[in-house]
Amino acid sequence: MQCPRLMREELERKMLSPYGVWSAESKGRMREEPPCAIRTCFQRDVDRIVHSKSFRRLKHKTQVFLQPEGDHYRTRMTHTLEVARIARTIARALMLNEDLTEAAALGHDLGHTPFGHAGERALNKLFGNFKHYEQSLRVVDLLEKDGRGLNLTYEVRMAILNHTHGGPDDTLEAKCVRLADRIAYINHDVDDAIRAGILTEKDLPEIVRKRLGESHSMRINTITMDLIVNSFGKNDLIMSPEIQEAVDVFHEFMYDRVYKNPQAKGEEAKVDGILGGIYEYYIKNPDKLPEDYKKLSEREGLERTVCDYVAGMTDKYAVYMYSQIYIPTAWQIR
User: Fold this and answer.
1) Which runs of consecutive H residues, i.e. helices, occur in the chain?
2) Residue 107 resides in a domain
């Protein structure tokens, strides 16, 4: 029997676009490893991310709304899964490497803080120059597996790092993830805002409703299809001018009406206090850090390590730790 990995690598050479990345030509890992007999290097990265602790924690991290009342609001986990599906749809249609695309999509937000972007801003004030995409790379390179990291391929690592702003040597698969991220969050965040009573469908700008569609699924389909049609056979990912204009208006509308909305963001003022309190406590009491973080602090320094620890917390765990540190425990006299 021929090695399944080699069969898949040969199939990629026949099927992928000239602009796609062949698994067999990956730039490799930071630490060399024997190849898997069954999976390509990018398939292996998908599995490593999905089985990681930081991936599992995404289900308890905020997407936009802090601790919403309801079971159907997005979390960082569901956002990640939606990005992965949109990105794979684009990659498949354009005959790019789906496994590379999926790995980058699943890993792109592993470094996100508790409480979403409010937590990111809080840690930026506390530690300085904190960016979630850089933290995502730090998670896969260093923090997972007790300091060994996941040892992912160069292409996946760079796609994770550059998923917000792009990089000088972006693959088309990396661009898939970056565009799928935006397509996913502006659409599912408006869906959550409507569910929360902050918006109605009629509040969306006319250009968005007319050009992209009147429903969540129609808008995603319109943008994705336009991107595929206008990018097919090209060494770039582009939308038509009409759809790009509507997407830009949509994005600006979401920032004005949702991401900066006092009703949606009313609880975020408390995030600075919660994360700031936890951060300062461990700076003053480094002996209270978990054992693996104590070892990390010897190599990385205390402030960097405390930042890593706080950034990795889920919303619920951060609230729990704050209460354990600062709120007196109830007791009874018998």
Assistant:
1) 4-15, 41-50, 53-57, 76-93, 98-107, 116-126, 132-138, 154-161, 172-195, 206-211, 216-231, 241-254, 269-284, 291-300, 302-311, 315-326
2) yes
pLDDT tier for residue 195 given thresholds of 50, 70 and 90: confident
Q: What is the pLDDT of residues 98-109, one digit of tens each?
A: 999 999 999 999
- Does residue 331 sit within a domain? no
Domain residues for the domain of 197 are 4-259
Is position 105 within any domain? Answer: yes
Distance separating alpha carbons of residues 90 and 103, to the nearest angstrom: 14
Task: Name 62's bridge partners.
Answer: 75
Who contacts 176 (Cβ-Cβ below 8 Å, separation ≥6)? 87, 90, 91, 94, 96, 101, 105, 237
Closest by CA to 283, choosing from 116, 54, 143, 127, is 127
How many structural domains are present in the chain?
1
